[in-house]
Specification:
CATH class of the largest domain: Alpha Beta
Oligomer: single chain
Radius of gyration: 35 Å
Number of strands: 12
Shape: elongated
CATH superfamily of the largest domain: Glycoside hydrolase/deacetylase
Distance between the termini: 73 Å
Number of helices: 27
Structural class: alpha/beta
Strand content: 5-15%
Largest sheet: 5 strands, mixed
CATH topology of the largest domain: TIM Barrel
């Protein structure tokens, strides 16, 4: 069958005209639903959900009926095939009679046709005849594009089905006995007659309900440790209610209809209303079961959204997830549900909770990043200690050490402004030849000390432990200790901390243990950094742009730097939750570069928004998490979270990428750096 024969086939025409009519039919349905939803605002969400589902089913059924009507109608009535000469003449005669009738005066009480009426009718009929005469030639192409679209979106749907199959079969295990007993109790309270299984998975980051014949509820493997058991109970009940209402089945039907009518925005809008009202209705059912737990449930939803944003994983639309729908609206409804019925004190408490969570969520959706601001920043009590390597600042400007002095003064001012008890680790070769001090750079260390900031040491030169003979490495640290103690002794300040250059701890456990025993004899403790990063690459690119007075590039680098650091916090906070089930006090390493100084307000502001308070290195390292064993040795230097992960036999997480332009600048010039 060639293209011409196919194009002229009756079924192609029938499908084509069905698609054409579906455009206005579904648009009208969507408009009617819009009016109904506005009228039903005061009713329960379940009513609006049922009405929305009915509208979507009508959007499917009406085009099907239209197709059969077109298929069974006479060819002359639908105008989808070539008209024979006789049919054309008959139509012409019929139109002539209609025109004659219109020209005659009416004898009944009906309105009299005026010349204007006849003109409008004739114009409309002319458009209609033109449309039917010329549009059939376009129908085969329209049907072909529709079939291609259905094929494409079907592949996407099958991909989602396959993803759900993976969720059912890979990386799953049962929860402990206590949770299984609690789950059985919840099923009984909900009157579920279906046998539902509760599993946990390493592949997902938000709870989902799958299936309707043999339903499953699958929880992320780490969620039991990440949110409060009471909050988790509300999430499990949410998924059980979805199953009791057969929402997974409705969701599958939705997905199929969305594939068939992919071209129509009205279908997508109706489907969005279904998902929205479905979550509202399910939330209302949860609140009916758990009385006076609206804040707990709202916090549970916020925590789920935080986890989803931190992993940047998407749940297939074919699954019903606990954090589906419009999260902001859901939380507002959850908190407002009880404020309307409780006395003033309860209303005030819930109102405060609503305002707090709303502010957090608004920050989430307005912040230009994949990061999510922890909705419980006050409760989480996150802590951060910052170490700078190395002071005095290294600069590659045209006039060192003058520029180092200006950068150091700006950095100290910003640390003082933000009340950050940072510690700076001195690289002795930057301020001394081993015997005498270089006045300007030595005074930078004194400024740091006099500002109340702590001073520690690295090696005399910034060298890799792995590539340096043990005796030479120890001699370098001892030389640095002697130089720095001269400055600390002026104020009777002890030397307490050592920072491994490049975070490299040597070739073997024996070498590192021997070295750290040597440090301990001097009362010096090595620092363990949990938040490592490639800030030094951004700082290098920034310095080059600064030397060229390229203000545009400098601005771009500052923006990209903050985005990158925000992602790095997501990265390492996820490690903290996975390993310890909580936010341990973090330790971050930075360089005292001009980029960090110029970006200080944005950087430290971002950190504060994530719920961190700034603490001393001693307070952070006092946490028991830093006693966790690790045995990493080798040529590279990595953070302690990565070391602990490797020691536990787990895979490392994928680290956020450095901006492509920054990386290119570094790679093109790294061999030129002295």
């Amino acid at each position: 069958m060639n293209w011409e024969t196919l194009a002229q086939s009756e079924i192609i025409g029938n499908v084509g005209w069905t698609l054409v009519h579906s455009v206005w039919q579904i648009a009208l349905l969507a408009f009617v639903l819009f009016l109904l939803l506005r009228a039903l605002q005061a009713y329960e969400a379940n009513v609006r959900y049922i009405v929305s589902v009915a509208a979507l089913m009508a959007a499917f059924i009406i085009p099907v009926i239209t197709f059969f009507q077109i298929s069974t109608a006479s060819t002359s009535e639908i105008g989808i095939t070539d008209l024979s000469k006789r049919e054309f003449l008959e139509n012409g005669e019929r139109m002539t009679r209609m025109s004659d009738d219109l020209s005659k005066p009416a004898n009944t009480q009906a309105a009299v046709s005026t010349p204007m009426d006849r003109q409008i009718f004739a114009s409309a009929e002319a458009v209609r005849r033109f449309f039917r005469a010329h549009f059939p030639a376009v129908l085969p192409f329209a049907v072909a594009m529709w079939l291609l679209g259905v094929g494409f979106f079907s592949l996407r749907l099958f991909g989602g089905v396959w993803q759900l199959h993976r969720y059912r079969t890979q990386g799953i295990s049962g929860l402990d006995a206590d949770w299984q007993v609690r789950f059985s109790t919840l099923c009984g309270e909900l009157g579920l007659h279906q046998q539902v299984k509760l599993l946990k998975s390493t592949l997902i980051e938000t709870p989902i309900a799958i299936g309707f014949l043999k339903p499953l509820i699958i929880l992320p493997a780490s969620i039991v440790l990440q949110i409060h058991p009471r909050e988790l109970e509300t999430i499990i009940v949410h998924e059980l209610i979805h199953i009791r209402r057969y929402d997974p089945l409705v969701n599958i039907v939705q997905c199929v209809i969305e594939v068939l009518f992919f071209y129509h925005p009205g279908v997508r809008w109706i489907s969005a209303q279904i998902r929205r009202e479905r979550e509202f209705a399910t939330d209302a059912a949860v609140m009916d079961i758990f009385e006076n737990s609206h804040v707990i449930y709202a916090n549970a939803l916020v925590n789920l959204e935080e986890i989803r944003f931190s992993t940047n994983k998407k749940t297939p639309s074919i699954a019903t997830a606990a954090n589906g729908g419009n999260l902001m609206q859901r939380i507002q409804r959850i908190l407002q549900k009880n404020t309307e019925m409780k006395h003033a004190n309860s209303a005030w408490t819930a109102g405060l909770a609503l305002g707090f969570i709303s502010a957090v969520l608004l920050g989430l959706f307005s912040f230009n990043s994949t990061a999510f601001v922890n909705a419980q920043t006050k409760a989480s009590n996150r802590k951060l200690a910052i170490g700078f390597v190395s002071i005095p600042p290294l600069d590659r400007s045209a006039n060192p050490p003058k520029d180092s002095d200006a950068t150091a003064r700006l950095m100290i001012a910003k640390l003082t402004q933000h009340k950050i008890p940072a510690i700076g680790f001195v690289q002795g070769s930057m301020m001394s030849d081993g015997e005498k001090l270089y006045p300007v750079r030595a005074n930078i260390v004194r400024m740091w000390r006099d500002a109340g900031l702590e001073v520690g040491i690295g090696n005399f030169k910034h060298v890799w432990f792995y590539n340096t003979p043990y005796d030479d490495y120890v001699a370098g640290v001892e030389k640095n200790e002697t130089v720095v103690k001269q400055i600390l002794a002026e104020k009777n300040i002890p030397l307490l901390y050592f920072s491994y250059p490049f975070l490299n701890t040597g070739k073997s456990a024996q070498e590192r243990n021997q070295f750290e025993a040597w440090l301990n004899e001097r009362g010096i403790q090595p620092v363990k950094y949990t938040i490592d990063n490639q800030e030094w690459m951004y700082s290098y690119a920034y310095e080059r742009a600064r030397n060229d007075n390229d203000l545009g590039t400098m601005t771009e680098i500052r923006v990209e730097f903050i985005k990158y650091m925000d992602k790095m916090y997501d990265h390492y906070e996820a490690y903290s939750k996975e390993m310890f089930g909580r936010d341990i006090p973090q330790t971050m390493v930075l360089t005292p570069s001009r980029l960090v100084a110029d970006s200080a307000d944005d950087l430290f502001g971002m950190i504060k928004k994530r719920g961190y308070s700034f603490v001393s290195m001693s307070e952070a390292l006092a946490d028991d998490a830093y006693k966790t064993d690790e045995s990493f040795y080798g040529e590279s230097g990595i953070s302690w979270f990565e070391r602990w992960t490797l020691a536990a036999g787990k895979r490392l997480r994928d680290e956020p990428k450095v901006n492509a332009n920054v990386l290119k600048t570094w790679n093109e010039n790294k061999y030129k750096i002295k």
